[in-house]
Amino acid sequence: MVNPDSGAPELSTRSQQARQSNDELARSAARLHFVSRVPFLCECSNPDCRELVLLALAEYEQARSQPITASEHER
């Protein structure tokens, strides 16, 4: 489903919660000047998913237009 205002897919509640957590992780990592990859939460719609996605902060910022998901997970 696409959000008509942004052109980006709508996120499920679980995905929204993961995105909010990931945004906070990114802010903290930036504040602490992380230079290594950061373990972000998979933003798939599976409520039982506990996978992590390792990304550099620049990669996370570039990928934010879509849900960040582990390999082979549905968005």
What does this structure look like?
The protein is α+β, with helices and mostly antiparallel strands and 75 residues long. The protein has a domain at 13-63. The protein is 35% helix and 11% strand. It contains two helices and two strands.
> Compute the gyration radius: what is it?
12 Å
What is the H/E order?
HEEH
Unreliable segments (pLDDT under 50, ≥5 consecutive)?
A: 1-9
How many angstroms separate the termini?
10 Å
SS summary, helix count: 2
Number of strands: 2
Order of strands across the main sheet? 1-2
Q: Given the C-alpha coordinates, what overall shape results? A: globular
Task: Describe the secondary structure blueprint for this structure.
Layout: H1 13-31, E1 38-41, E2 52-55, H2 57-63
Short précis:
The protein has helices at 13-31, 57-63, and strands spanning 38-41, 52-55. With 75 residues, it is an alpha+beta fold.
